[in-house]
Amino acid sequence: MELWGRMLWALLSGPGRGGSTLGWAFSSWQPQPPLAGLSSATELVSHWTRVFEKRGIPEARESSEYIVAHVLGAKTFQSLRPALWTQPLTSQQLQCIRELSSRRLQRMPVQYILGEWDFQGLSLRMVPPVFIPRPETEELVEWVLEEVAQRSYAVGSPGSPLILEVGCGSGAISLSLLSQLPQSRVIAVDKGEAAISLTHENAQRLQLQDRIWIIHLDMTSERSWTHLPWGPVDLVISNPPYIFHQDMEQLAPEIRSYEDPAALDGGEEGMDIITHILALAPRLLKDSGSIFLEVDPRHPELVSSWLQSRPELYLNLVAVRKDFCGRSRFLHIQRSRP
């Protein structure tokens, strides 16, 4: 995704990560007749832009363009054939635009309204309350791909690692890696049943189900890890819950009202799941195996201190990478031989 698209995503869905109690029922909205006098895509975009602006909806024009384009069968308004911009819409199309726009007025993220979103060139199904993959996470995937290209694995050639993703959500990370590493295999775990179901659906849609094991698992449960049917992995990758608990209420309504807070709230210092992953690393990783994490910009220093106080884990923070906004966002931690 290009930089402008990444910034647009952040504005459409609210800053960072977050969530609270779910609020995605639409019982208060009742269908109404199509808007009189509005018949073309361009007119509909202008109308709903004004409505969204009046109601304080972020990125009003982009929201209306995505909705109108979706109803007309395109991903973006700009990708529509110019003839469709002024062609009259059917009454059914007008009604559908009204319904979807009413959801945006309730601050539902565009990704959930459309029911799909692109990640690393893959079209993924999106349903609430499963965490929506952020543009920053595409950079995490790109970094992992760079590292994999520089290594050889036991299977015999570069690009064939065994990967464990902790907290798979929609399957965005796992499936994008599988699609770009044809010899790789992935184990994807999540404690949310909705996430597991959605990852299964996306794997089937992309025909990647043969190389992924999707397991319903709470990674904080010690007993769960002791009964899993695999040996050590080459890579552990995670975009874990990392929001500091006190920051949760400051997040945008799109995030607070629709996304699962369990996928977002990382505890007092945002480190609860991060430290679980690191503590389990000697059991999960092969010698010289790596962990790649997406974190809060305050976490590199906290993680470094935590690792230094636990030399028995034989883990080293070998690199920190910034995201497209210049914030320290990604960590590469490597296991050394005891």
From TrEMBL:
Keywords: Methyltransferase, S-adenosyl-L-methionine, Transferase. Residues 43-115 form the Release factor glutamine methyltransferase N-terminal domain. It holds the Pfam family PrmC_N. One of its GO terms (biological process) is methylation. Residues 163-249 form the Methyltransferase small domain. GO terms for molecular function: DNA binding; peptide chain release factor N(5)-glutamine methyltransferase activity; protein-glutamine N-methyltransferase activity. This is peptide chain release factor N(5)-glutamine methyltransferase. Its EC number is 2.1.1.297. It catalyses: L-glutaminyl-[peptide chain release factor] + S-adenosyl-L-methionine = N(5)-methyl-L-glutaminyl-[peptide chain release factor] + S-adenosyl-L-homocysteine + H(+). It comes from Macaca mulatta. It is an enzyme of class 2 (transferase). The keyword Glycoprotein does not apply.
